[in-house]
Amino acid sequence: MRNSVILSSGMHVPEQVYTNQYFNDLLGEDVDTWLRENVQIYERRWCNEEESVADLCVAAAEKALAEGDLKATDLDLLIIATDTPEYISPSTASKVQHRLGAVNAGTFDVNTACAGFVTALDIASKYIRSDEQYNKVMIIGAYAMSKYLNMQDKKTVTLFADGAAAFVLGADTSDSGKGFLASELTTKGEYADWMGIYAGATKTPTTAAVVAENDHKLKILQRFPSELNPEMWSQLALNLCKRVGVEPHQVDHFFLTQININSIQATMDRLGLPMSKTTTVMHNYGYTGSACIPMAYEKAKKNGKIKEGDLVMFIGSGGGLSFGAVAFRL
Amino acid sequence: MRNSVILSSGMHVPEQVYTNQYFNDLLGEDVDTWLRENVQIYERRWCNEEESVADLCVAAAEKALAEGDLKATDLDLLIIATDTPEYISPSTASKVQHRLGAVNAGTFDVNTACAGFVTALDIASKYIRSDEQYNKVMIIGAYAMSKYLNMQDKKTVTLFADGAAAFVLGADTSDSGKGFLASELTTKGEYADWMGIYAGATKTPTTAAVVAENDHKLKILQRFPSELNPEMWSQLALNLCKRVGVEPHQVDHFFLTQININSIQATMDRLGLPMSKTTTVMHNYGYTGSACIPMAYEKAKKNGKIKEGDLVMFIGSGGGLSFGAVAFRL
């Protein structure tokens, strides 16, 4: 039985730091107090004018390859999860494939908003488990949402930020018990029109009027019920526990979408688990969408919070609303 | 052993027909002669102002469900392959899930330009083959490129058009020999900057200047070598033949990307096979990108060109350049 295991990983964020003070000045009001006290965001990174999402992907990919002592030509498949692509078409993955020199890798992008990385982890695992052509698969969660922000929109501009992180997954045929254990994807499409980038595609093509109105920018049209993510995330965790055959306390670490630290706290509360069993990165990076879950993994790895043999869960949600959950034995 | 089989399919195109005469008038020159004589395109369908890609998807999906006597709630997963999405974010699939009422389906979009449908066919097959949660998976190839066309660009406006087609794939545990046999994905990322929609994402965000210059529209920046698709498609066909253990003449039907009938002819020539072993749809539909391969399948099915037990190959290419090839036993 072939299984999908995490071989290595890496992340990259732009150099340019934007503190909360920048937004106080930009918006002409104190947003820092709310950001610090309510969502624990202190600073974030944004691409500069010359940077875009492919740059973040290439840098994260190179770190993941280096950590695994791998060459780009070792990769059989490259999947990029993003809803802030390099171009509308072709895929960001094709561009990154060329820049990396990953000439043996098939490529595609996955868009399921901020659930994209977990979904890509599920897809990549299925390639490795079911097709012997796939021995090394790279997945990248990438986000350059700064490019789609309306600088006058307090609800979005203070939260969303840029970053990328990559995993290299490999095929393990040793029956080690390591690697992919279970997954679940679910969608509540009734929320598709609540948050998104609604103009610039086929429903509302870009026009001068669209640009004048900033309709091509990210919009939060309705506020999601605060209980929605904790309910869904904890239920997904319980579902995975059942499939894996463990109790929640036997899970060593959770990597959850970093949109709001209160949702993470509420999820851990529902599971009866301490915050020490999860890692948060919004403090210094803001909300980095499809990149935030592997960025949290990088932080946990760096801080020695996870080790070989640990049972971990990646649980993400994003616009759509789409949800993905994957359990791995490290 | 679980395998992925095609249970049913359906297609939809917009009502509005644009003949070559429309483009003679639009461009003020005779483009009809070249289109008829060189690429055998006579007419195509475009969305009207109120239509967009999700409308095409929902209509195609409903036909596929009806043909299979299935309900939307039967679907475990919905994958939409498109590079002309409903929104930039969230996914087109989340919107379509809600409109269909496919409440039990996880969702994501795949973007690998016009290789998207074949790639989605590969992904969906891997879900079905490797995870018992997935018994009914819908994939849709969808294209509303009319929304991204520069009406003054003769190279694109005369060729590209709109449509969608859906497959429902099911799990077969009967060891019937039917269903998915082999696949290959490959990418030549060195061509990523040759054809695409380059502004409107993170590399070149939309601005008033971008709109004024029509940079947010589809552009062909360099002409692809005419031998590239025939070389790649015939090689992919031979690779799949080898994996399946057959000679090319034992393949009953080929479904190839419909960008240029001459590429299809040259591919069949290289394989030493007659044009009767393939089906073309560009004559009445123009080039419909990620939708064209399942649209060709629909035509072949309707015309009795394929039957149970046939060995068929789906081979697609698209911007990136990305290539996908899948062999199925019907």
UniProtKB/TrEMBL annotation, chains A, B:
<feature type="domain" description="Beta-ketoacyl-[acyl-carrier-protein] synthase III C-terminal">
    <location>
        <begin position="242"/>
        <end position="329"/>
    </location>
</feature>
<keyword id="KW-0808">Transferase</keyword>
<protein>
    <submittedName>
        <fullName>Ketoacyl-ACP synthase III</fullName>
    </submittedName>
</protein>
<dbReference type="InterPro" id="IPR013751">
    <property type="entry name" value="ACP_syn_III_N"/>
</dbReference>
<dbReference type="InterPro" id="IPR013747">
    <property type="entry name" value="ACP_syn_III_C"/>
</dbReference>
<dbReference type="InterPro" id="IPR016039">
    <property type="entry name" value="Thiolase-like"/>
</dbReference>
<keyword id="KW-0012">Acyltransferase</keyword>
<dbReference type="Pfam" id="PF08545">
    <property type="entry name" value="ACP_syn_III"/>
</dbReference>
<feature type="domain" description="Beta-ketoacyl-[acyl-carrier-protein] synthase III N-terminal">
    <location>
        <begin position="108"/>
        <end position="189"/>
    </location>
</feature>
<dbReference type="Pfam" id="PF08541">
    <property type="entry name" value="ACP_syn_III_C"/>
</dbReference>
